User: What shape does this take?
Amino acid sequence: MPWPFLPPNPDTFPAPHDGELFVFSLTLTGMRPYDEQADHSFLVDQATASVYMPIVESPTAYKYRGICMAALPRVGTTATYKGTYVPLGKSNTHDVAVDARQLTGGITSVAVQRSGSKAIFTVGVDTGGTSGLSVVAAPYMPTALRFASESAYMAAGDIEAVPTASTTVKLTVTAGSLTHYGVFLASGLPSSINPRSAGRLVKI
Assistant: This one.
């Protein structure tokens, strides 16, 4: 693994409006998420954060796109992101600009049914009239797990487009031992995940 350089994606950083999860788009360069994420710790405004990086931009450059989630009741005009490579005790920080204008919809309800290692989410959404949105169910892992493969890491979350004229979306994840998920609306798929609603923290 190269020295981890962990810059946040500067495109979209919406503020939370329901006091549960602050979610923002992130690009990580310098680690392989499915196993090496467990060697890192992440903070946002000193709160332990969780990252999920399901979009592979360049496996040879160790460059992945995804999101960062932190359970913060409020944020200001900026939030401070810090990523640390624990074995070497090396870290970097970035200021994340907060822009509530990016919030165009909301999660109205979440129901979850577990069946063995699988979990099925039925998510109610309000798109606010915005088209092209997707619902994301991302594993909330303040302490990252080490997955057996990249495909297992990807299967821990799910992203589904909001059908035209629909207010309900179903998602299926392989949760395994995971107990919490962040659920939110996003745009930019499949090349990036740009949150368009506040995150809902869900215990399954």
